[in-house]
Automatic annotation (TrEMBL):
Domain (Ribosome maturation factor RimP C-terminal): residue spans on this chain: 92-159
HAMAP family: RimP
Domain Ribosome maturation factor RimP N-terminal: 13-89
Cytoplasm listed as a keyword: yes
PANTHER family linked: RIBOSOME MATURATION FACTOR RIMP (PTHR33867:SF1)
Pfam families per the UniProt record, alphabetical: DUF150_C (PF17384), RimP_N (PF02576)
Protein name from the UniProt record: Ribosome maturation factor RimP
GO cellular component assignments: cytosol
Reported function: Required for maturation of 30S ribosomal subunits.
Localization: Cytoplasm
Amino acid sequence: MAFPDAEQLTQLLTPKVEEFGFDIEHIKTTKAGKKSQVIIKVDGDERPTSDDLEKLSTAISEYFDAAEDAGELNFGAGYTLEVSTPGVDLPLTAPRHWRRNRGRLVAYEFEDGKTHRGRVGALNDDETAVVLVSTEKKQVVTRIERLENIQRAVVEIEFAKVPAAELEATQEAFVDAEENSAPRED
């Protein structure tokens, strides 16, 4: 069997990672001489603790070793396994990313390539739209944007204190009413 790629490992590991209540966010494999490298980034609605990551890493390592012994996987002479969380530079590409970053400031772009900023609020029930909160002319403004229209989004690192009114607005339930949504200016 050939050295497994990220797609194969994602298919194999998804059920095991889900047993721990996490999602695979990214897998990177590097075939490098005597020691190959497998890097797995996981996250969950409940942020994984270092103890969670250690238990998951042990379970994956045991699974890999058993699969190699059975001839189902081949990492070559050996491998180094790293299991961690993705960090704030993970692009928000799935509804779960938006849900998990509620209250955080994001920079996002539409097809026009202009960067906008807003604080993540609630998602609608089918997780196809999100409330984005910002302050304009000292007024808290909420916008509803369809996730499919957002081309790129990442969490912004903040050093200043989060405005209380913005944070409060992010905790409100999703309300899909045109009068509650300011139009997007293109």
